[in-house]
Give the backbone structure.
Amino acid sequence: MTLSVTIDGRPVELPEGATVLDAVNRLGLALPQLCKDPDRPPLGACRTCLVEVEGQRGFPASCHLPARNGMAVRTDGPEVVRIRRAVLDLTRSMLTSGEGRGGFEQLGEACARHGLAAPSWGPLHRSAVDESQSFFVLDRDACILCGRCTAACGDVQLIGAISLLGRGHAEKVGVFGDGTMASSICTSCGQCVATCPTGALRPKETPARITKRVETTCPYCGVGCGIVSAVREDGRLALMADDVPRNRSSEGMLCVKGRFGTGFVHARDRVLHPLVRRSGRWAPASWDEALDAAAEGLARNRGRFGALASAKATNEDGYAIQKFCRVVMDTNNVDHCTRLCHSPSVEAMLVSMGSGATSNSYVDYEEAGCLFVVGADASENHPVIAIRFRRAVARGARLVVANPKRIDLCDYADIWIRQRPGTDVALFNAMAKVILDEGLWDRDWVAGRTEGFEAWRASVESYTPELAERLTGVPAPDIVQAAHWYARPPFSGSCLIWGMGITQHTNGTANAHALLNLALLTGQLGRPGNGISPLRGQNNVQGCGDAGCIPTNLPGYQTYGAATLDKFEAAWGVRPPAQPGLVVTDMVEGCLTGQVRAMYVVGENPLLSEPDLHHARKALGQLDCLVVQDLFLHETAELAHVFLPAAAFAEKEGTFTNSERRVQRVRRILEPPGEARPDWWITAELARRVARRRGLEPRGFDWPGPAEIFDEMASLVPFLGGISHARLDREGGLQWPCPTPDHPGTRVLHAASFPRGRGRFVAVTQGEPAAELPDPDYPFLLNTGRLLYHWHGGTITRRVGGLLELAPRLQVAIHPADARRLHLREGDLVRVVSRRGELDGRAHLTDAVRAGEIFVPFVKLADSAANFLTNSAFDPSAKIPEYKVCAVRVERPLGGTEAERPVGGRGRA
Amino acid sequence: MAAARHPETTTSHETDSHETESPVVTPGSLDRPLASFPRDRTWLLPALQAVQAERGWLSLADLAAVAAHCRVPKSEVYGVATHYPELRLAPRGQHLVRVCAGVPCRANGGLGLLDALGGALGVLAGGTTADGRVTLEAADCCFVCGVAPVVEVDHQYLSGPSVDAVLAACQDAPGAAAELAIPHPIFSVRDGATGTCLGRLEALGAQARARRRAGPRLLVGTGSCGLARGAGETLRALRVALARMSLDAEVLAGACNGLCHAAPVVEVLRPGAPRLTVERVTADRVGALARLLDGAIDHGLSGAAWSETATAGLPPVAIHPVLGRQERLLAERWGALVPEDLDDALLADTYAALARALDAGDPRAVVDAVKAAGLQGRGGAYFPAAVKWEGCRRAVGAPKYFVVNGEEGEPGIFKDRHVMEADPHRLLEGMLLAAWAAGATRGILYIHGEANRSAERCAAAVAQARAAGLLGPRVLGSDFGFEVEIRRGAGGFVLGEESALLESLEGRRAMPRPKPPFPVDVGAYGKPTVINNVETVAAIPVIVGGRPAAAATKLYGLSGHVARPGIVEVAPPATLRRLVFELGGGLASGRPLGAVVIGGPSGIVVSPGRLDTPLERPTLSPGTGGITALDDSVSVVDVVRTLLAFNAQESCGKCTPCREGTARMLEALDRLSAGTGTPADRDALRELPEVVQVASLCGLGQAAPLALQTAVAEFPGAFAFLRSRDASRASS
């Protein structure tokens, strides 16, 4: 049903429910609409979109005036123009012209069109510009109080850092206690800046003409938000990216990194030319020289080779690398960083269900009646998913947070379960027992969809809530209540969401199984509004695994069975090896034993991300040939023999696959700087050269571009079969499985059955909480994790000035009681020492950590990094290191009282 | 929602026990005041009020605690706290003295009182004495305009007090209020589904009758207005006097019957004898009343006997200058019953219209009856009430809400407080009938934050009605379930706008929503919602009970210089002559009438030339029913400025024309009236009113220029400076 209206005599057709302003905009008429964000409901505040409606008195605001069939509207009658001009005059009179303020953007344009050269009144209020945030300013003298920014902060992001304060003409935009923006909980997401119509909130950037805008996918975490990058006339990316409301994964939301964090592509230390190490020093080389040197070294070490692919690079890049390993190097020794984050999740899910992917979609978090978020600090790591959680709470969903650290989500939670680190199995088994004992489980589901129930049931029999309370420190009633809410949410279903708090333990796989058992017991997966979600860390960690950059499976998680190998042989001309390869942690160990002599490391920096960095450095130092392909000469590259400069995300075409299995396009916005090249191109060149040296026919690496690589992958991976670059360009991102070109993609996995048939209960018991626990010499328990303003080791984010400004120093979070005993004040220099190394940081006193525990983010800042301390003890089945627990002591370095001393990290090798 | 349990942030980890206390020291725990509120945004305003009641004001630490409890971001809590005028973000003195500076009080010397008190205390308005004992403030209105001028000491009103009386009141312990509430009777409510609703109601009535003592009942008019005039003392003195006389009479707290000017009023109810209304029974005249009760005729008291002939020395009500000349339907029982007492309500046939309607089983019939009677909204907009109910009934969503707007924040308007204080059960009956007709199952009675008397009495009435099964899952045993919750505002005239009120219910700044969607489709918590004004709702049981005339009568609050201020109820056509001169007794000063403010700051200012124009829309809308008559000593420009300044201050800040336009009009008016205006100011004052009126988002802004516009038209002489060719030269 469409409506037909006329605006200034011009007919326009509209869908049911449209407003008159929609009609005006459809015709492209220049009607001011200062308070109307194009993607948000109307606020009705600025009163500048006034129109006249034939046969109706007054001058209604068109933004909240429903269009009616046959309506005749005028925007240009003399009376309505007179009133509108007067309102614009009142609005413009609020502002003071001044340096940096420009022409007040939308308001300036509207005034100019209405012949309003100067305001009739002087401003009633003046105030200083708040420049306390690193990326943008709040300039109240350019603010018209339209309310768009506070809606963006409160209603879009649900952060509520800014609010309208006061009332009447004394109203203003501000923060708690009327302090500065930096004093508030503002996370610099920039949602407010993007929507401001006058430039009162504006980026700290000299304005420049924009020559083009390109929609692409954010290069940071696994949420996969849509961004629009703008290119300035000087050829650089604009400081601020725009959001993409039609992107179904992000719905127009962004966090600080997506909004402001893309400037790293212009970092001064980008490597612009291939480098070859000659007599211990880097020497610039031509691509031919460098590729030949690399090919020589790799070919020489065939059979003793491993590759580390990048979860930051595209699917196409990943596919090229694994194909290179399997076809040219004749090995399955290819892995990526998933080993260090979610391998236990994937491992456990493969055993229990036969698929390692998130079963549901982000939208399910908002339809759920209960969210059980375990060991995942989404506000820091997946900020846009945290918004979905907050929205769910606002809709009345129960939020149960399990985390030893008081994370931001605890403030929104109905229950905060603060288990002792490493006691997760006891917690989840006890919840299972409550669900069993109280008959809250789904008998039909268990009977129809699962196996191994009875044996498993016996295994949780001893886990009473009281026992769990003793083991975990969580009050038994909280365990019971959490079990009730998870099993029987007040409405809809329950979503189980977890992060590295579950996986980065020596018992990570057991933890994951204990969680999955809860989902199997209650049937909380396979339907809209429920599901199981491991939150993925890197932008393309899902896609990198999908593309086959894992030693255990071929692309699409296909096993090394004969039929599959036949299929790949037919496509590739070479039969892939049938034996599983080495995982990354084994490759590092293999360097020490001679099992690995050459490595090809693409877009990864293991010497920051591996545990026990001194040990890892020693291992990689043994290599005969280390080829590193990246943007920067990072810690790992320092040991390399050949460095191949790669193009950044903004300089190449391809796809990323996010945590909800949505394949999305990455587009070239800029030409790569210098001689940098896309990863897939470099890998293909390398493959041809190694193949030639091995006497192989160098075919299958002559793709014209990434679209063709994707087509090849899609032809071999059934669940990607219906996806192509062309289709993504047409329709936007698609969620796999999407087997055919007419398939719409899949929101919910496991609706009717599991890939392995029935879901399998796996009995697990609570083991020792961790491999290394505090003792008199190392009395503190160290927990590590991430920071909103940095990403992983910080290789990229340290190169974005504004992000570094927001988090410049390594903070050691310590409980005030411990700090008092150690005579530490906020900001004091502290040294954290483990059996493996030490780091220096600044004390941050907070009761977010328990007494006896400290928290250090694993980003490297001022040369200190948490992974100098961490333990390389790993989970036996998934081989993930125990990043989350180790024993340390906290010291005050000599003379470390004043806050200005430089901070550095040293080894204790 | 269950309260969240968070682990202690400081645990009993193996640390020295003396080092485990929290590093953040907060002055006193807020656990107790906050514990009763679910951890949900909708309780934000009540939680802030509870904490303020505990602390006297709200510190940043307190705000942060409330924010954490209600799970609302701190900045948003700060935004809310800075928005509502009754929330205090700075400490105040031990005692709070507020002097009303509204138009009716100004006309009766309020500003002089403020100056005198300031002089005596040595502070300016807004200041606190050096010893921290007293904070002095000017109030926009205390909403007891019938006893102007009014001073409020620690939330107790005083009518026209001397400076010494105010200072003496400050010697008392703060907040010492007279406890006048009566205990709740207990009804034995039979369960089960037998019998009709009317049958159940009659059974309740029988219990009430059985409980009723036979002796005389003396009801002292202890409404807010009466208390300001010493009704509390009268009540106490009367009890002492009657005990001394060994007279077997009950002395009870009643309500104002509308004769605010005659307060304290005592109503005498004796079995088998006519009701007597006795005026001006101050504590020192209790003896005279005792003589009257003793049968004497020369008691010297005035009033009326509700009989054909004079009784006990009082003339028949028919010739009473105020009571005898009204058409009292909504007000018929005011003063004659103990307001919150369900026994009294039942004996007066309250809830009978409801019971009959429920037995008939057709909500549509209620809609039709109210529609046929033509009941229009008395909040000032005059929208047909039943049309909203039909919309709500049709709308999709559950539960549906019925909200009674008892915010009444318009200075000079005090009629809704009289309804709530005098007959809360009739209001509840109206809510039940309207909610049933509208398909709503949840009721919210939203009462002004300072209308404590209204809130107490409504709360007591709700508790009694619930105990008797008149509220709850099965109202009178029917299938109709209805719960009522009382919410309090925290100031803000804009709450009269229905969507702003809904925002405040949800714990947000009171800023109107763009419409559509209208509340009947998307209202409280996003659900279909009807919002009706108190007076509108109170008329419903009368109409449904068979007296449709109640749809046409209107409550007027007479104030200012009238000789007999108070609340009257008249049938149309009302005129200012009837209200001001016949019922109001003309001007107390004996001077000629100068101007009348009809309505408050959203109303109009008219000249005596309008005395005989019927108060009918659209020609001369009675608005909210406030009639402030002023003699010719009053400066119309000053009145307009007061009203305009109030509108500028009360603009919620959301939309530009109202927020900026009212401030600019005030700016221009001040300059022009001071003789420093420019031609641009003159142009602005001629053009801006129209802009603000037609371009503002809600009724507050749309009505904000009305007083100025009408006054300029009605009093051309007073506003001559708007016409001069050069404003500044003409005035010099």
